[in-house]
Structure formats: structure tokens, C-alpha cells
Write a structure and sequence with these properties.
The chain is an alpha/beta fold. The protein has eleven helices and eleven strands. A hairpin with a 3-residue loop joins strand 8 and strand 9.
Length: 323
């Protein structure tokens, strides 16, 4: 029996205006069976955006609130129960979501924000059988991954696979940088195994406006006019690299997925809407210089204390300023 090709739906989309965006998402998901192919009535649905930071809300470092709203509304219309969760590098998910304009949307739709906590889950790779993943993510009925197109100082480009690293709770991410980051190939493999363990049901990539240059937060916005969706996050990442004209071997997550045999060749991917050659851009800006992935021990300790300060002192104290 022949295995069906993984499908990556690609369309042009230039607006975050709600009605236009909703129409774009309907077109995007139609070849995949629509949202109803992924969400059934009563399902608890994790919406996993990129909530990297609250410090640069105008620089397109995070998934746009309009996309989160549109997807959440589609989930609710078929009877799903969406909740939003992430584990930002600094601060709480609620704090970063608030800084990026998500809170009014979540309150309007009565969608809870969940802070991720850890639990060990078995992985298929013995090298990473001690992965600590969020139980809130792993126990959701459906996971919808909502990454942003971004250049990255350490990983060249980050897309769907890297966004799932947010399902590693708290400062475990920094410790993984230190443990696996001395070898870019090993770090890429760890990210791939994380994504494989989480196994999102659907990835919808926010590429209407991306973040190029010295990302994940130090670059600048760049209009791409692209939305992408797939139930295969590895195929989606490979396809988007073709649009950006970036060599897959230069992106540790995609290179690792190819070595592990879970990333299809471009010729093995079905494109039911637009093909990658119709969306290519010539001058997507990568980082000026790539930085080492590994975090030295002092940096991890400093990062941990900064996280604790923001989470338990700065953000709670901020509530008193509202009176």
C-alpha cells in the first residue's frame, strides 16, 4: 500500500484584518479537510503560539494576536475548547501574552492561559530519553502549533519545529542549551525529538509578516505575505526554507530531521494550493553572524535568576500600578 504524500498548504496572505484573515485561513485549511478534520466537539485544544518576549511588541517577534483569535474562533465553532499555553524564555506566558496584545482577545473569547509545567515522557531516541515536556501540552486532545517565520542567531531560521521547544517548561530550555548546545547537530536533533514527541496535529505558520536579520528578537519585520499549514511539521519547515531560499543543511533542525529520515524531500511533498517556486523571495536576510548555541554556566544561572525575578517579583508588582 502506497503511503500518501505529506501535504503542505501554501497561500498568499497580506492582511491581519480579521475578515480577510479568516477567509485566508479557510482557503489555507480547505485542502487539509478544514479545521473540522483536526478538532472534534469537546476536544481540549492547545494553541501554541510563539510568545518569545514582551520587550519588542512592534517588531513581529511573536505570533500575531489576530491569527490566534481567528484560529481560536474556528476551533470553537466546531465545538473545540481552546486554551493558550507557552513557556517563554523570560517571564510568564500571561505576562508576555499581555505585552503582545493577546489578553483582550483571550478575555473576549474566554480562553484560559496555561503556564507549562514538566513531566517526563518517553521518546523514541535513547539519547534524549530524559526530555522533560509540558504535561499540559502532552495531555491536550489536540495541539495546534502557531509559529512565526524568523531568522535566528543560533539556528539560522526558526519555524514550526523550534516553536515546539516552548513545550519544554521553564528554565529547562536554558539547561538544554547548555547540555546539548555545544554541538549544533545534537541540539538540532534534540529539537527534532522534542517535536516528534509532541507531534502537533496541525501547524499554521504566521508568515504574513516575518522577522528577518538578527532574530529571534533583534531583527526587523519583513512582509512575506505567506501562510502555510500542514499536519506534518517537518514537511512544512522544509517547504518554507525553499521559499526563503535557505539551504536546509544550514538549519540544524531541518538537517537533523533529514538525517533521522522524518523530513520528506521536496519532491515527496504535495502542494495542493501554491507551490514553493511561486512564493520565493530573493533577499531574505539571515543573521549577520551566527552565535554559538551553548549557554555557559554563568549565563544559565543569570538567565534563571532573571526569569524568577520577572515571574515572581516584577510582573506581580506591576499589578499594583493599575490602581
Amino acid at each position: 500500500m502506497q503511503t500518501p504524500k505529506p501535504a503542505v498548504s501554501l497561500i498568499r496572505a497580506k492582511s491581519y484584518e480579521q475578515e480577510a484573515l479568516r477567509e485566508s485561513l479557510t482557503t489555507l485549511l480547505a485542502p487539509l479537510g478544514g479545521i473540522a478534520a483536526f478538532v472534534k466537539r469537546g476536544d481540549r485544544v492547545l494553541l501554541k503560539p510563539n510568545l518569545l518576549t514582551g520587550s519588542r511588541p512592534t517588531k513581529e517577534c511573536t505570533t500575531r494576536p489576530e491569527l490566534v483569535r481567528a484560529v481560536a474562533e474556528m476551533v470553537m465553532e466546531v465545538g473545540g475548547k481552546p486554551f493558550l499555553g507557552d513557556s517563554p524564555a523570560f517571564g510568564s506566558a500571561k505576562g508576555v501574552a499581555t505585552a503582545n496584545g493577546l489578553l483582550p482577545i483571550l478575555e473576549d473569547l474566554n480562553i484560559p492561559i496555561v503556564e507549562f509545567h514538566g513531566k517526563r515522557y518517553q521518546t523514541v531516541n535513547d539519547n534524549f530519553n530524559h526530555l522533560l515536556l509540558s504535561k499540559e501540552a502532552m495531555e491536550a486532545d489536540v495541539i495546534i502549533n502557531l509559529p512565526k517565520v524568523k531568522s535566528h542567531l543560533q539556528l539560522t531560521v526558526t519555524l514550526g519545529v523550534k516553536n515546539l521547544f516552548g513545550c519544554v517548561p521553564g528554565k529547562m530550555k536554558a539547561w538544554w542549551h547548555m547540555e546539548a548546545g555545544k554541538d549544533a547537530a545534537r541540539f538540532g536533533e534534540m529539537l527534532v525529538e522534542t517535536a516528534r514527541a509532541i507531534n502537533p496535529n496541525l501547524t499554521i505558520l504566521d508568515g504574513i509578516i516575518g522577522h528577518e536579520g538578527n532574530g529571534p528578537s533583534g531583527g526587523e519585520p519583513r512582509a512575506l505575505g505567506v501562510l502555510a499549514a500542514s499536519d506534518n511539521v517537518f514537511a512544512l519547515d522544509r517547504a518554507v526554507l525553499e521559499i526563503l531560499k535557505v539551504d536546509p543543511l544550514k538549519v540544524p533542525t531541518v538537517a537533523a530531521s533529514q538525517i533521522l529520515g522524518i523530513c520528506p524531500e521536496l519532491s515527496e511533498i504535495e502542494f495542493p494550493n501554491l507551490s514553493t517556486d511561486l512564493l520565493q523571495i530573493e533577499d531574505w536576510r539571515l543573521p549577520d553572524n551566527l552565535m554559538p548555541i551553548d549557554f555557559a554556566m554563568p549565563r544559565v544561572i543569570k538567565s534563571t535568576f532573571r526569569h524568577l525575578y520577572i515571574r515572581f517579583i516584577k510582573e506581580p508588582m506591576g499589578a499594583y500600578a493599575k490602581g
